[in-house]
Design goal:
mainly alpha
Length: about 150
């Protein structure tokens, strides 16, 4: 093996490493998921603001279960038509926990905003808080996940 062959092998291994890193970076949730989550958040705000308490509780439980099922199937980065299928071990164990952390933070923000709006005398504080958080989730969800992944080295 001469120096040229070694250089080509090294260059090829670097290209494979870059491609692997890029695929891991893309692992997460597709953009449509975040908009679906945002629309669901608005719907929950409307139900919480206008429906009886029991309906809001049932809707919240159904939303949580449905979101958990959908997100767990999507977070591995597999996209239709790409031909790429990542194993969960390649994505990392921390990614689902980051997604859960984002959702918990959004719940806390929604509740906090609704309480603040109610104390201020706003009409329909749950709906307003739901729309506020939905805007954050829809416009910033993927970017928020990307920043958190880099912060915790996932």
């Amino acid at each position: 093996m001469n120096a040229t062959d070694i250089h080509h092998a090294h260059t090829s291994l670097e290209a494979v490493g870059r491609a692997r890193h890029q695929i891991r970076e893309e692992a997460g949730l597709p953009r449509w998921y975040w908009w679906f989550l945002a629309a669901s958040w608005v719907l929950l705000g409307v139900i919480g603001g206008l429906a009886p308490d029991w309906a809001a509780i049932v809707a919240t439980v159904l939303f949580g279960a449905g979101n958990a099922a959908l997100a767990s199937r999507l977070y591995d980065g597999t996209r239709p038509g790409t031909g790429v299928r990542l194993r969960r071990s390649q994505v990392g164990r921390a990614l689902p926990w980051l997604i859960i952390a984002i959702l918990v933070a959004m719940v806390a923000l929604t509740v906090g905003a609704a309480l603040w709006l109610a104390a201020d005398g706003a009409a329909h504080p749950a709906i307003i808080a739901g729309v506020l958080v939905a805007a954050i989730v829809g416009f910033g969800g993927p970017e928020l996940l990307r920043v958190l992944r880099r912060a915790v080295h996932v």
